């Protein structure tokens, strides 16, 4: 399905930001030590929760952009 491939490409492009500028992503409102990457797709998208640990970026969760939290 082409929609699935377009979503995969959108995720790959967005995650590429984390390789050189993870600090540009917004801080999570409820847990300030975490950050959120917004991945737009169609009329919505998803939000990826991550943490910066030394030189590593640790992906913690992903959710639909319209959901309330990362659980």
Largest sheet: 4 strands, antiparallel
In angstroms, what is the radius of gyration? 12 Å
Helix and strand pattern: HEEEE
Number of strands: 4
> What is the average per-residue confidence, as pLDDT, rounded to a whole number?
88
The proportion of strand residues reads 35-45%
Helical run tally: 1
- Mass-distribution shape: globular
Can you put this structure into words, describing what you see?
There is one protein chain. The chain is an alpha+beta fold and 71 residues long. Helix content is 27%, strand content 39%. The chain has 1 helix and 4 strands. It has one helix spanning 2-20; strands at 26-27, 35-41, 44-53, 56-64. The protein has a 4-stranded antiparallel β-sheet with strand order 1-2-3-4, with helices on one face. Strand 2 and strand 3 (44-53) form a beta hairpin. It is globular, with a radius of gyration of 12 Å. The termini are far apart. The mean pLDDT is 88.
In short:
By secondary structure, the protein is an alpha+beta fold.
Q: Tags for this entry?
A:
71 residues, 39% strand, alpha+beta, single chain
């Amino acid at each position: 399905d082409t929609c699935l491939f377009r979503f995969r490409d959108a995720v790959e492009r967005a995650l590429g930001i984390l390789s050189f500028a993870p600090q540009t992503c917004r801080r999570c409102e409820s847990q300030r030590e975490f950050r959120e990457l917004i991945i737009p797709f169609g009329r919505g998208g998803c939000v990826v929760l991550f943490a910066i640990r030394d030189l590593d970026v640790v992906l913690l969760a992903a959710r639909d952009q319209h959901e309330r939290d990362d659980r």
